[in-house]
Specification:
single chain, mainly alpha, transmembrane helix, membrane, DUF6766, transmembrane
Length: 114
């Protein structure tokens, strides 16, 4: 008997992703309109008409510059965290063997008492 997926579980499972996508799209739309207002104001101050081509070039240039700096920051932080994890939490093979031996002893003791 096949089980039908529950739509509620899909929302629970992917809800955080949906929220992040909505926040991303909402912030990008907000950036679009604020950039457009700023660009139109600058063009009006210089007595020039609003040009969609120039605006879209500036908008996407600013967007990709922002994304590039954010991704560079995230990658740099990830590398630092991985390096810190390995440096701070070094476990050599002798420690691992000692822990495994203790676990084996505990399991053996548990089996003998059952």
């Amino acid at each position: 008997m096949s089980r039908r997926p529950n739509s509620g579980s899909n929302l629970r499972r992917w809800g955080a992703v949906y929220v992040l996508v909505v926040l991303f799209v909402g912030s990008w739309i907000g950036q679009f309109f604020t950039s457009m207002a700023e660009f139109a104001d600058t063009q009006a101050q210089h007595g020039q008409p609003f040009e969609w081509g120039a605006f879209l070039y500036q908008f996407f240039s600013a967007t990709f510059e922002n994304w590039q700096s954010e991704w560079l920051q995230v990658v740099f932080q990830a590398m630092l965290l991985m390096g810190a994890k390995h440096w701070l939490f070094q476990v050599d093979s002798e420690d691992l063997e000692r822990i495994e031996d203790k676990l084996d002893d505990l399991l053996h003791q548990r089996r003998t008492f059952e």
